[in-house]
Fold this protein.
Amino acid sequence: MDKITKLENKPLVNKPFKASSYVLDEELKNAVELALQLNQPLLLTGEPGTGKTRLAEYAAHLLSQSSNFSEEVLVFNTKTSSRASDLFYSYDALGHFQASNIKDLDAAQQKGTGHFIELQALGKAITFTNPDQLNAVSDRLIVEHPGNPKSYVVLIDEIDKAPRDFTNDILHEIEKLQFEIKELENLPLKSSDDGQHRILIIMTSNSEKNLPDAFLRRCLFYHIEFPDQAKLKAILKAQVGDFLNSREAALDMIIESFIKLRSKTPRKKPATAELVAWARMLDSISFEPNSIEDVERKIIQYISVLVKTKEDREEVLSKLRVEREEAYLA
């Protein structure tokens, strides 16, 4: 068996995402602006890998250039076990119990409940738009905060993963941008009233299950369609290296082959994220195709980047083999 080429000699292909490279169409831009103006969450749906999550990074980057928005996105990754309170804060009950039972500590050394409270994404945003309120409760809630009030983008990712009660239970808090910490005798925390410090809430859903009507009524909605050929080209030009970007014919053949690949994939169709990763790989080897057949050979070589299930892999490879045999016999 041949030795694997030393990894340190290989270029880094999967580079960190740059928010400034996000390609935003006019309709989605309008949806973001409306969410800010109406002070309502923006719910995004679309295929996995079409840029729903990345939009929050782009919005924070763009807003931070001309306003007091933080460039940091506060992220809540929804789980199947998530509860409404998890979006605002977490309480380490076990740690509190263990600390309370340490021997040889007098009352002055015992840590209070506030030491075991940690603010989470929306809880931080609500509190940090109005950090002065923390001064009044500094003896009860131990929180590090940035000092000056700021506006924030909050990403609630894959909200459809949560139990149905989750969305129903956060209706009031999201509408009023305030919450209570029940472990601190229902200590209330709320966002700034002056309108200068805002919270843009972006939620993503893969449509794994329907969300309640009462929740949907409080959101703005936008569905990110899979990009057409022109937009795919713009995305690659923004996110891939200079080599392919200077070769229009090569980009056209890569995109055409990718669209054909999607039509051959019956289960989990490769999305924009897979196209970008594949194009970066081709760019790293200075790939210069002379024909669609050249590109399809690279599909086979790097199919692990594009196809993510055993069934899709078998189907795609089978169809590509048939097409190549038919072309040879023609």
Summary: The beta strands are 42-46, 69-77, 89-91, 117-119, 151-157, 178-181, 187-190, 199-205, 220-224. The radius of gyration is 25 Å. The mean pLDDT is 87.
